[in-house]
Hints:
3% helix
Amino acid sequence: MPSHFTSLCRAFVLILLSLVSVDGLTSPLSAQFGGGGFFGSAPPRENLFSQLSVSVDGVLAATDGRAKSVRLWEAQTGQFQRQLEVLPAGVSAVEFSADGKTLAVGDRDNVIRLYDPQTAQLVQTLRGHTSAPMRLKFSPDSKTIVSGSDGLIAGKAEHDRAELLVWSCESGQILRRLPQSKGFASDLAFLPDGETLLVSFLPYEVDPAAPDGVQIWNLKSGERTATLKFEPFRARSMAVSPDGKLMAYGSHGIILLWDIPTRTLLRALPAKGDDLVIKLAFSPDGLSLASAAARLNGGTYVLRAWEVASSHELWQRDFQRHVLALEFTRDGSAVIAADYESVRLYDFESAATRREWFPRGDVLQKTTKD
């Protein structure tokens, strides 16, 4: 490294750029990512949230604190819509399809159930996992769903038991099994073509021989075409811009912006060094980014908004509990952030709290505090 780069900040950027690499072969944190928060599980009290997803038309799907049923609310008004059937084993994941017409619910009995959110009717059951599906992602055309499990058996990680399965939503059949070894998928994202899947992959153990990174899969051929490596940073969260050209990658104290077509690092957004970036979301126009991070030294959380082109931080807000969901509203004017106990809408321009709700039985009780 040239000696005239004496600034610690500039040196850090150069080291970062030199460490990012791409290859076509790589695989492989621990059970803490299987559920709950980074500082423990959700309190087992009735009416608290444990899993959340927001649909394209602004419907909020949330499990109750016992994580055995799923309730639907209108996210902007807090109006309760309906409840799905109770799942005896407990809910492990929820995810709306891209068109909002299907809601996938992962069950801790290793099954995925597809519902019509308008009628709460079960339309398809997907069987084939050997451990609970913890991550779900629909393709852009909503015809395919990818599910990832951590390989946790009786609360312990069984090496080489993590699974990544591709399903037909219509037939309920497994289309492909994507090989995973020594780790699991912590996040999933499709590109707009519907055939390219990005998998943020984490090893079970911190081991230089089991590097993590973002795998790029061609689902048509079933081949892994590349792996993006971000050493020494380990993946914690990932988001893809609506046009599929930009990926945001969150880790300890940093958010990396990556050009997907050229597979090159563009720049880094400087989150604080003790912040663990756990959620990322692009605005519908791709010009802005929202992030949620855990302050590991303080046990609290922080929401930030960024201008993508300039990497300028627009605002930040403190958050007291683990962030389960972070999404933009469809018009991009507000950010929806939800934790175990509440749902909040932040105005994106001013960072002011538009609305906040707490679950009380079958209603989200509105509060007016900022």
